[in-house]
Amino acid sequence: MADKEQAEYFKELSDAVLDMDEERTVTAAQDALDNSIDPYEAIQNGLSDGMARAGQLFEDEEYFIPELLMCSDAMYAGLDVLKPHLKATGESRGTVVIGVIEGDTHDIGKNMVRIMFETGGFHVIDLGRDVPPQRFVDTARESKADIIALSTLMTTTMDGMGTVVKLLNESDLRAGVKVMVGGGPISPGFAKRIGADGYAVNAAEAVKVARELVARDAVGAA
Amino acid sequence: MTSLERILAVCAGKIPDRVPFLLASREFSSRQAGMSLLDCYTQPERYIDSQVRLVDEFGLDGVYDIWCTPAVDELLGATLEFSSSDSASIPNGSVSCLDDVKRLPKVDPRREGRAPYLLDVVRRLKKAVGDSVAVIAWASSPFRTASMLRGVTDFYRDLKRDPAFAHALLNAVHGPCTAYGKALVEAGADIVCSSNPGANMQCISRPYYEEFSHPYTREMFGAIRQQGAKAVMFHTCGKWDDRLDLVVKENIDIVHCDRVDIAGFKAKYSGSAVLMGNLRAVEVLLQGTEESVGRAARECLAQGKEGGRYILSADCSVPRDTPAGNVRAMGAAVRDSGRYDRGDGEK
Questions:
Q1: CB-neighbour burial class of residue B61 (10 A; exposed 0-12, middle 13-18, buried 19+)
Q2: Who among A64, A106, A156 is closest to B85 (CB)?
Q3: Which of B7, B106, B282, B323 shows the smallest number of beta carbons within 10 Å?
Q4: What's the complex ipTM?
Q5: Between B161, B204, B320, which is nearest A65 by CB?
Q6: Is domain A6-85 in CATH 1.20.1270.360, yes or no?
């Protein structure tokens, strides 16, 4: 083990991400590897911790989209260093299938949510934009997903979210797959009306809601 | 008092005969006329008729042009993607370095690309509604156009990584954006409207807004006013609370607000701008009933009417599938509860 305490390596990784410093994050990741820090721990307690702190600053309106993007660039640069050294444990908080509903091509919000999911420890399958409802359900089945996350910015496409819930209800998957919705015209009331399990107003909140949904499911299954 | 006089009265700080009533209505009017948004780009007469019908049937005080957000972006080299139910969009940025900025073409919106068609629609709209009804036409702000040409996320990164490059791009697009706005006025637009959804307080910080958006918008709107626009309107998409004090200094007459407390806004900014808004477009106008729409409109009027400087509207564009009865209920509310006892405009 290194001269430094393990926690110091994690803190340096976390701080480098929070400070939006790609170069420093890469150096910190390499330093952690060189000193036998477990790469999985370095990702979870270092890089992801930095993004979680960035997400909190975003919620507090101290960080905004440019800052979150720079933090995520630093985090991904660190991941590039650490990931090749991961043992294939497949550990994750769960699998999320995410996409923008059919007929809508606005994907900035969805991309921000994807970043927060990935840094929050979820395995994310991003279907992109303009995605037909059935594809969400099919992909959830194939990937054994825990969550389907749906985004739209348009009132003309928001009903497609209800279609996904309906298709899921008609399948044999509903008990194991939670549905989260978000986007400009979406409200908690709409989410409830279509039978979604969760609603988030922004990317930082989305990852919290996802964690709650997965935890609730785990308790329910116990 | 005519519709246009009513709007200009509140802009001038006078009390009109009643609260003006406007709705950003492209999607709604085209649906009412059985058109897709794509049809708007090929069937100008049908689009114009759909807007005129709104004035006749719903009592609106103004009509809107096609609201082609990326008209200038296309002149500057962006490739547009069209959809039958959404605004034209730009899937990929076309500017990746300073050389690309230097190579941006000099444009004349009166003669090039899709712009002459859009300007002609404004000209025909004005002819159709005459002097009594306001024609409102949309112009892109420099921050928005720069984001589109560069790619939105890359432009956000530029603000932090390479602010000089961001300013170079903003300076390059400022002229074409302004030229299009001025051409709209020449074509007959009474009010030029703009918005900048990527610069709200959910996207960039106030200092960044102050540096990268505010000065360019202020200068552009100033030039459009000088060109003879009777008013300039700015739509705040999303949260803008921490920068409304800057917005009202951008040569703007009307702020079309998304989420804002009407009474709070009026108390702070009525001396600088007219407030337009802000009945919930989705939760109330689209998803509500005629009763709930009427109630919400009267609540807006109760907060906004006193002292003038207020226009009743929704908080964003009217959703395409909004029930016509709900829009009628809003119009009925303004006619019943929006009257001033002794307006400056009364004969």
A1: buried
A2: A156
A3: B106
A4: 0.91
A5: B204
A6: no
Asked if residue B114 belongs to a domain, the reply is yes
- Residue B122 placed within a domain: yes
- Which architecture characterizes domain A95-221 according to CATH? 3-Layer(aba) Sandwich (3.40)
Which residue on chain A is closest to B321 by alpha carbon?
Answer: A156
* Nearest residue to B260 (alpha-carbon basis) of B225, B284, B235, B293: B235
Please give the Cα distance from A181 to B340 (Å, whole number): 43
**Domain residues for B61?**
3-337
Does B77 reside within a domain? yes
Give CA–CA dist B319/B323, Å, rounded: 9
Per residue of chain B (347 residues), give pLDDT as tens: 999 999 999 999 999 999 999 999 999 999 999 998 889 889 999 999 999 999 999 999 999 999 887 889 999 999 888 877 777 778 788 899 999 999 999 999 988 889 999 999 999 999 999 999 999 999 999 999 999 999 999 999 999 999 999 999 999 999 999 999 999 999 999 999 999 989 999 899 999 999 999 999 999 999 999 999 999 999 998 889 999 999 999 999 999 998 899 999 999 999 999 999 999 999 999 999 999 999 999 999 999 999 999 999 999 999 999 999 999 999 999 999 999 986 555 43
Of A69, A156, A202, Cβ closest to residue B320: A156
CATH number at residue B157: 3.20.20.210
* Structural domain count, chain B: 1
Smallest Cα–Cα separation from B67: which of B10, B28, B34? B28
Is B303 domain-assigned?
yes
**Contact residues, chain B, for A66 at CB < 8 Å:** 156-157, 159-160, 204, 208
Question: ∠A126-B204-A79 over CA atoms, to 5°?
Answer: 40
